[in-house]
Design brief:
about 95% helix, cytoplasm
C-alpha cells in the first residue's frame, strides 16, 4: 500500500508539473495577447457592430462575474463549514483514538489480571484435584479394611460389629467432609470466575461501543472526503467557467483590437481624403484667385486698350502669356497630384508592412500551436506511464485481494476447527454430567446401604444375627464395594482423559490467543499506519487548501485586473463610440461631398458640352469677327487714309475758307464724314473687344470645365483605387483575423480539453484508488470483526472449560 501511495503521489506531482507547464504556457499566451491588445489599442477604436457585440458580451460577462462571485461566496462558506467539520472530526477521531488506546491499555491490564487469576484458579483446581485423590484413596482403603475385617471376622460378629459401624461412620463422615470442602472451593471459584466474566463482558461492551464510534467517525470522514471532492469539482467548474470567461474576454479584446485597427486605417484614409479635399479646395481657391487676377488683368488691358491705341498684337501676346501661366499652374497641379499618388503608394506599402507583421504573428501562433501539440504528446506519454502505473497498482491490489481471500479461507478453517472442538467439549460435558449422575446414584445407594447397616446394627442383636444374613450382607457389601471400586477407577480414568483433553484445549486456546494477539497487533499496526496516512493526507489537504487560497487570491487579483481592464475597455469603447459617431458624420459628409462632386461632375460635363458648342460657335464668331476685324482694319486704314486726305483737304479748305462759301460747305461735309468714320471705328473696336471678351470667357469656362472634369475624374479614380485597396486590405485583414481567431480558439479548446482530460483521468484514478482503498479497509474491518468474534468465542470456550473444570 505504501508503494501504491508513493506511486500515486509521484503521479500527482507529475500532473501538477504538467499543470504548471500548461499554466506557464497559458500565462505566456496571455502576455502576448495583452501585448497585441495594447498595440492594437494604441492604433485605434471600435465599430458599431462590434460595439453592440461588445456590449452583449460585457453584459454576459457581468452576469457571469456576478454568478461567479455568488458561487465563490457560497463555495467559501461551504468550504469554511467543511473545514470546521473536518477539524472537529479530526479532533474527535484523535480523542477517540486516544480513548481507544486508554481502553486498550485497560483491557490489556484486565486481560493480564484475568490471566493471572485464571492461572491461580487452574493451580487451585489442580491442587484440589491432587488433594481429592487421597481422600478417595483413604475412603477406599477404609472401605477395603472394613471389608477385610468383615471377611475375617464374619464368624465373630459380636466382637467386631461396633468396629464395622465405626468404620462405616468414619468413611461416611470423611466423604461428607471432602464433599463439603470441594463444594466450598467450587463455589468460591465460581464466584471469582463470574466476577471476572462480568468485568470481561463490560470491557467487551466498551470495546464494541468504541468500535461503533470508530465506524461512525470513519463514515463521517468518508462524508467529509465526499464533500471535499464535491467542493473540488465545484472549484474546477468555477475555474473552467472563469477560463471560458477569460477566453471570451480575450476574443472580445482581439476583435476590438482588430476593429480599432481597421477603424484607425479608415480614419487615416479619411484624414488623407480630407487633406486631399482641403488641397483641392486650396487649388480651387488658387484657381479662382488666378481667375480673378486674370479678369483684373483683362480689365486693365481693356482699359489700356480703350485708353491707348495699342496694336492688337500686344493683346495677343498678353493672352499667350496668360495661357503660359495657366499651363504652369496646370503643371503644378499635375505634380501635386503625382506627389499625392506617391504618398498613397507609400501608405499602401505601410499597409503591406502591417500585413507582413500580422503574417509573422500568425506564424508565431502557429509555432505556439506546434509547442502545444508537443506538450499534448508529452501529456499523452505521461498518461501512458500513468496507465502503466495504474495497471501495476491493480496487480498489487489483486495480490492483496488474493492474500485477503487466503486469510479468509484460513479463518474459515479455524472457525470450523473451533466448532468441532466446541462440539467435542459439549459431548464431554454431557458425559461428565452422566458420570456425575451415576456418582450421585452410587452415593445414594451407599447412603441407603449405610442407613440399612445402621438399622441392622441398631435393631438386631448379636445373638439374633444369623450367619446366613451376615454372609448375604457381606456378599452384598462386597459386590457394592466392587462396583464402587470399578466406578471410582472409571471416574479416575475419565478424569485423567479430561485432564489430558483440558491440557490439549489449553494449549490450543493459548495458540489461538497468541495468533489472535499477533493478528490484533498487526491490525493495530495497520490502524496506526492508516492513522499516519490519514494525518499525512490531512496535512496534504491543508496544504492543498492553502494552495487553493493562494490561487483564489491570485484569481481575485487577476479578476480585479480584468475588471480594471474591462473598465478601461469600456472607456475606450465609449471613446470608440464617439469616434464612430464622428466617423459616421464624416462619412455622411463625404457621401454628401461625393454626391455634390457627382452633381458638379454632371454639371461640368454638361457645361463642358455647352462650352464645346459655345467654343465652336465662338470659333465661328471669332473667325467672322476676325474677318470683320480685318475688314474693319482695312476700312480703318482706308478711313485713316481718307481722314488724312480729309485733314489735308480740310486744311486746304480752311485755307480756302475765305475763298468761297461752297468751300465751307464742302469742308463741313468732310468734317461730318470724318466724325462718322471715327464713330464707326470706335464701334468696331468695341465690338472687337466684346467679341474678344466673349472668346476669353468661353475659353476660360472651357478650361475651367476641363480642369474640373479632370480633377473629378482623378478624384473618382483615386477614390476607387483607395476603395479597392481598402477592401483588399480589409479582406486580407479579416481573413488573417479569422485564421488567427480559429487558431487561438483551437489552441484554447485543446488546452481546455487537455486540462479536462487530465483532471478527469486524475480524478477517476484517485476515485478508483480511493474506492479500492475503501474496499480493502472494509475487508480489513470485516476481518477484524471476525477475529474479534473468534476471540469472543475463544473466551466463551475458556469460560466453559473453566466451568467444566470447576464442576469436575
Amino acid at each position: 500500500m505504501e508503494s501504491t501511495v508513493q506511486e500515486l503521489r509521484d503521479d500527482l506531482e507529475s500532473e501538477k508539473a504538467a499543470r504548471d507547464r500548461a499554466e506557464n504556457q497559458k500565462r505566456d499566451l496571455k502576455e502576448e495577447l495583452e501585448a497585441l491588445r495594447l498595440e492594437l489599442i494604441d492604433t485605434g477604436t471600435n465599430s458599431e457592430a462590434q460595439a453592440e457585440a461588445l456590449r452583449k458580451h460585457e453584459a454576459e460577462l457581468s452576469n457571469a462575474r456576478k454568478q461567479l462571485e455568488v458561487d465563490a461566496a457560497a463555495h467559501e462558506i461551504a468550504l469554511s463549514e467543511l473545514r470546521k467539520k473536518h477539524a472537529t472530526a479530526v479532533d474527535a477521531l484523535t480523542e477517540q483514538l486516544e480513548a481507544m488506546k486508554r481502553v486498550k491499555l485497560a483491557v490489556e491490564n484486565s486481560k493480564t489480571q484475568m490471566e493471572t487469576s485464571n492461572a491461580d484458579l487452574t493451580n487451585q483446581l489442580n491442587t484440589a484435584l491432587t488433594a481429592k485423590t487421597p481422600w478417595f484413596k483413604v475412603a477406599r482403603s477404609d472401605w477395603f479394611l472394613a471389608s477385610d475385617r468383615l471377611k475375617i471376622h464374619s464368624y465373630r460378629p459380636s466382637l467386631y460389629c461396633p468396629c464395622n459401624l465405626f468404620i462405616t461412620r468414619f468413611a461416611t463422615t470423611c466423604v461428607y467432609v471432602f464433599r463439603a470442602e470441594t463444594e466450598k472451593r467450587r463455589r468460591a471459584l465460581e464466584q471469582k470466575l463470574n466476577a471476572k466474566m462480568m468485568k470481561l463482558e463490560e470491557v467487551e461492551q466498551q470495546k464494541a461501543d468504541l468500535e461503533e464510534r470508530l465506524a461512525k467517525a470513519t463514515a463521517e470522514g468518508e462524508a467529509l472526503s465526499a464533500a471535499l471532492e464535491e467542493s473540488e469539482n465545484k472549484l474546477s467548474k468555477f475555474a473552467r467557467s472563469e477560463a471560458a470567461n477569460a477566453t471570451t474576454l480575450q476574443e472580445l479584446r482581439q476583435s476590438l483590437e482588430d476593429e480599432t485597427r481597421a477603424k484607425l486605417a479608415i480614419q487615416t484614409r479619411l484624414r488623407q481624403a480630407e487633406s486631399e479635399r482641403e488641397g483641392l479646395k486650396d487649388s480651387l481657391e488658387e484657381e479662382e484667385q488666378g481667375k480673378m487676377a486674370l479678369e483684373k488683368h483683362v480689365q486693365l488691358l481693356q482699359q489700356q486698350a480703350s485708353c491707348s491705341s495699342k496694336s492688337p498684337m500686344d493683346d495677343v501676346k498678353a493672352k499667350v502669356a496668360e495661357d503660359a501661366k495657366l499651363l504652369e499652374t496646370l503643371e503644378d497641379t499635375r505634380k501635386r497630384l503625382q506627389r499625392d499618388r506617391d504618398e498613397m503608394s507609400n501608405r499602401n506599402e505601410e499597409l503591406q508592412a502591417q500585413v507582413e507583421k500580422l503574417e509573422k504573428s500568425r506564424k508565431k501562433l502557429q509555432g505556439e500551436l506546434e509547442d502545444a501539440n508537443h506538450a499534448l504528446a508529452a501529456q499523452r506519454s505521461d498518461q501512458v506511464t500513468n496507465e502503466r502505473k495504474l495497471k501495476k497498482l491493480e496487480a498489487s491490489l489483486a495480490e492483496a485481494q488474493a492474500t485477503a481471500t487466503r486469510l479468509q479461507t484460513e479463518k474459515d478453517q479455524n472457525d470450523r476447527d473451533m466448532r468441532q472442538r466446541e462440539t467435542a467439549l459439549l459431548t464431554k460435558e454431557r458425559e461428565l454430567e452422566e458420570l456425575q449422575e451415576r456418582l450421585e446414584d452410587s452415593e445414594r445407594q451407599r447412603t441407603n446401604l449405610a442407613k440399612e447397616l445402621d438399622d441392622l446394627v441398631s435393631h438386631t442383636d448379636d445373638a439374633g444375627k444369623s450367619r446366613i444374613e451376615l454372609e448375604q450382607n457381606n456378599f452384598k457389601l462386597e459386590t457394592q464395594l466392587k462396583e464402587l471400586h470399578q466406578s471410582f477407577e472409571e471416574l479416575e480414568d475419565e478424569m485423567a482423559q479430561l485432564a489430558m483433553e483440558k491440557q490439549r484445549a489449553d494449549l490450543q486456546i493459548n495458540a489461538l490467543k497468541a495468533q489472535l494477539e499477533r493478528e490484533l497487533a498487526t491490525k493495530d499496526e495497520g490502524f496506526e499506519e492508516q492513522k499516519r496516512q490519514l494525518q499525512k493526507l490531512n496535512r496534504e489537504l491543508k496544504e492543498e487548501l492553502e494552495d487553493e487560497k493562494k490561487q483564489r487570491l491570485n484569481l481575485s487579483q487577476q479578476r480585479k485586473k480584468l475588471d480594471a481592464e474591462l473598465s478601461e475597455v469600456k472607456q475606450r469603447a465609449e471613446v470608440a463610440d464617439r469616434q464612430r459617431d464622428e466617423f459616421s458624420k464624416q462619412l455622411k459628409r463625404l457621401q454628401l461631398l461625393s454626391m455634390d462632386l457627382k452633381r458638379e461632375l454632371d454639371a461640368s460635363m454638361k457645361s463642358r458640352d455647352d462650352a464645346l458648342t459655345a467654343a465652336r460657335d465662338l470659333e465661328k464668331r471669332l473667325r467672322a469677327t476676325e474677318s470683320e476685324r480685318a475688314q474693319a482694319v482695312e476700312d480703318l486704314a482706308a478711313s485713316e487714309r481718307t481722314c488724312r486726305t480729309a485733314k489735308s483737304e480740310r486744311d486746304e479748305a480752311l485755307e480756302e475758307a475765305n475763298a468761297s462759301q461752297s468751300a465751307k460747305y464742302a469742308s463741313l461735309l468732310l468734317y461730318l464724314s470724318l466724325n462718322l468714320l471715327i464713330e464707326d471705328k470706335k464701334k468696331l473696336e468695341a465690338t472687337v473687344m466684346h467679341r474678344e471678351e466673349e472668346l476669353e470667357e468661353a475659353q476660360t469656362a472651357r478650361e475651367e470645365a476641363e480642369d474640373r472634369y479632370k480633377r473629378t475624374l482623378s478624384l473618382m479614380e483615386q477614390a476607387q483605387i483607395d476603395l479597392g485597396l481598402e477592401r483588399s486590405n480589409t479582406q486580407r485583414l479579416e481573413a488573417a483575423n479569422v485564421s488567427l481567431e480559429k487558431t487561438v480558439k483551437e489552441l484554447r479548446d485543446k488546452m481546455a480539453e487537455l486540462e479536462k482530460e487530465g483532471g478527469k483521468r486524475l480524478k477517476l484514478q484517485v476515485t478508483a484508488l480511493e474506492g479500492r482503498l475503501a474496499a480493502t479497509e472494509e475487508q480489513l474491518e470485516a476481518e477484524s470483526r471476525e477475529h474479534q468474534k473468534a476471540a469472543r468465542e475463544a473466551r466463551r470456550n475458556d469460560k466453559k472449560l473453566k466451568d467444566l473444570m470447576q464442576m469436575v
